[in-house]
Amino acid sequence: MRSFAHTAPTGPRNDWQTIRSLLPFLWKHKPRVMAALFCLMMAKAAIVAMPWFLKDIVDQLSATDIVLTLPLALLVGYGALRLIGSAFAELRDAIFAKVTQSSIRSVALQVFKHLHGLSLRFHLERQTGGVSRDIERGSRGISFLLNFMLFNILPTLFEIGLVTAILYINYDAWFAIITFASITLYVAFSLIVTEWRMVFRRTMNDLDSKANTRAIDSLLNYETVKYFCNEDYEAKRYDANLEKWQTAAIKNQTSLSLLNFGQSGIIAIAITLLLILASDGVVKGELTIGDLVLINAYLLQLFMPLNFLGFVYREIKHSLADMEKMFNLLRNNPDVQDKPDAKRLEVSDGVVRFENVDFGYNDNRQILHDISFEIPAGKKVAVVGHSGAGKSTLSRLLFRFYEINAGRILIDQQDIREVTQKSLRATIGIVPQDTVLFNDSIMYNIAYGHPDASEAEIIHAAQTAHIHDFIISLPEGYETTVGERGLKLSGGEKQRIAIARTVLKDPKILIFDEATSALDSKSEQAILKELHEVAQNHTTLVIAHRLSTIIDADQILVMDQGQIIEYGTHRQLLDKGDAYAQMWALQQQEQGKDDTDILPI
Q1: Helices (DSSP H) in 331-420: which residue ranges?
Q2: Do 352 and 411 form a contact (C-beta atoms < 8 A)?
Q3: Tens-place pLDDT, residues 77-94
Q4: What proportions of the chain, in percent to the nearest 5, are helix, strand and coil?
Q5: Which CATH superfamily includes the segment(s) 352-597?
Q6: How far, rounded to the nearest angstrom, does the alpha carbon of residue 25 sit from its chain's CA centroid?
Q7: How far apart are the first and last CA of the chain?
Q8: More confident residue, 189 or 71
Q9: Which end of the chain has fewer beta carbons closer than 10 Å to its terminal beta carbon, N or C?
């Protein structure tokens, strides 16, 4: 059995692979993308044409050998070009807004659905805070990448090429050479230093995720922290992560200052050289004042966004690093997958059979050894044994949260590996030992068993679980919010809600996984009665710790170290006088009760 660690992508970061992962979401809006690019090019063409109007205006106003006239047409043309450039830029943003937001929504939805599609192994090993932060930063990264790569880097490169060509054609070649050389040096310097700096940013991201995970984990276990007076201990653990993050953040800012200073130096030298050349041309009479203004305007147009380009490039690299983690989630493949030809599970009687099943969570930990048993239609089979015997693993395998190593699990003679997981899990209902509720209303939590159910059906399910009277006694009734993980309710109340939503689901097969082990005796009595009623005419698997709750089972399996060591009815097993009888005697001695003290499920 391979572990989750082997499913995660490894190796160096690949920015082009990250960009390629995003392209399919963009291409869904190809007409809009093309329209936005057209607007972009038109805006840049207008901006590049503006210095020529400015040159002619200056030349006409600085002429000494003719009568000066107001160059009204040029001034109007200059203003019109500026307006046209601004209009196309705003139109570009308006057209592309839907592409950006739709892409973010589609990626976030796909990641969310994919996370639910991953196997239980991934979710047992993941860190919720870190995953949520990766998705949040990745979504922001998509927005930044789309807007600035398409609308800053590409148009700036287009403008650089256009201006360099204009300078080369109309002026001394040195103007184009110096411009191109300075830009090349600037880009090379930015690339090299930014790549060096990325290690600090990635370290910051990792430490930020760890700190966030630790904070969420601590807050989720608020009561445990309070029980042991460990507020200061938790604060120290959190601060230890923040201290490491602070160190990485300082290194990141220091290296940023170095990068900014180097970029500013290259720009200053380039502008100085070009102005010296242009001024010399004016002195020699080879250039006009208008040419000097034109060249200066082009320099400002190039180097102002180029200075910003350094920031954009850095942020794009950061965005790619953020997006990489989010897209890596999509590259994790679930351990359990439907076969291409998987069919829907068809259930008539609901007979469950385990045939020679072997299973281990990893190669070094074998849990089940050659497990074989059958639950006939409408019958109840109970599984008992000490902790770690493999009881709860049976329910996880029946839900197909893991793939078995050997053997088969059948429902009505259909191998569960040959059917779709969705149809399989729709057939099975479970009341778990630890009922976890959503931080929503009681109505929502019960309806989770069948989201399309009517209010009348939900109320009927609550009545079947004997919790309706309690709910309507609350000030807000069914709209009462249960709190994080249902902590506003007692254990018995949560169990009844779990029973109600299982009743609403109306499955053919039921699993009770130590459903009363955490309850007091009075609550257990009430819940057991309700479970007994719900189990009527259902194929039922009961995983139990307290033997007195399953004395009416049609068959009881006794497990030890992943094997079935004996089986039979309650009376048959007591008569054998082996492991079950010893467990029974021990529990009766501990509880000081007899068979009739606790109702069976």
Answers
A1: 391-398
A2: yes
A3: 878 888 888 898 888 888
A4: 65, 10, 25
A5: P-loop containing nucleotide triphosphate hydrolases (3.40.50.300)
A6: 17
A7: 35
A8: 189
A9: N
Whole-angstrom CA distances from 446 to 10, 119, 143, 434, 531 are 42, 25, 38, 16, 16
- pLDDT category at 2 given cuts 50, 70, 90 is very low
Q: Sheet with 365-375: list strands edge to edge.
A: 365-375, 352-362, 406-411, 414-415
Long-range own/partner contacts, residues 338-345 (CB < 8 A, 24 or more apart): 338/420, 338/421, 339/417, 339/418, 342/418, 342/419, 342/420, 343/418, 343/419, 343/420, 344/419, 344/420, 344/423, 345/411, 345/414, 345/416, 345/419, 345/420, 345/423, 345/424, 345/426, 345/427
Three-state DSSP at 345 gives coil
pLDDT digits (tens, 9 = 90+) for 546-559: 888 888 889 999 99
Contact between residue 164 and residue 302 where contact means Cβ atoms under 8 Å apart: no
Helix and strand numbers, DSSP H then E, in the chain: 19, 10
Helix or strand (DSSP H, E) at 559: strand 555-560
- Cα 394–Cα 400–Cα 405 angle in degrees, nearest 5: 75
**310: which residues sit within 8 A by CB, 6+ positions away?**
186, 190, 259, 260, 263
Query: Which residue in 562, 557, 559, 587 sits closest to 572, CA to CA?
Result: 557
Q: Which of 22-36, 116-130, 277-291, 484-498 has the lowest mean pLDDT?
A: 116-130
Q: Where are the domains of the chain?
A: 15-330, 352-597
Other beta carbons within 10 angstroms of residue 469's beta carbon come to 9
Identify the pLDDT of residue 556. Answer: 93
Q: How far apart are CA 172 and CA 437, in angstroms?
A: 75
Supply the DSSP string of 24-93, one letter for each residue. Answer: HHHHTTHHHHHHHHHHHHHHHHHHHHHHHHHHHHHHHHH-SSS-----HHHHHHHHHHHHHHHHHHHHHH
Rg, the chain, Cα only: 35
Residue 542 host element (H or E): strand 539-543
Pair type for strands 414-415 and 352-362? unpaired
* Strand order, beta sheet including 380-385: 428-431, 509-513, 539-543, 380-385, 555-560, 563-568
Q: How far, in Å, CA of 571 to CA of 569, rounded?
A: 5
Place of tokens 């450039």: 85
Mapping DSSP to helix (H, G, I), strand (E, B) and coil, where does residue 142 land? helix
Separation of alpha carbons 509 and 426, rounded Å: 10
Q: What is 15-330's CATH number? A: 1.20.1560.10
| pTM summary value | 0.63
If you ran DSSP here, which 8-state letter would residue 153 be given? I
**Residue 594: what pLDDT?**
46
- Residue closest to 462 by CA, chosen among 474, 446, 448, 476: 446
Q: For residues 259 and 190, is the Cβ–Cβ distance under 8 A?
A: yes
Query: How many Cβ atoms sit within 10 Å of the Cβ of residue 25?
Result: 18
Backbone angles phi, psi at 567, to 5 degrees: -155, 160
3-state secondary structure of 131: helix
Q: Could you tell me the pLDDT band of residue 10, with boundaries at 50, 70 and 90?
A: very low
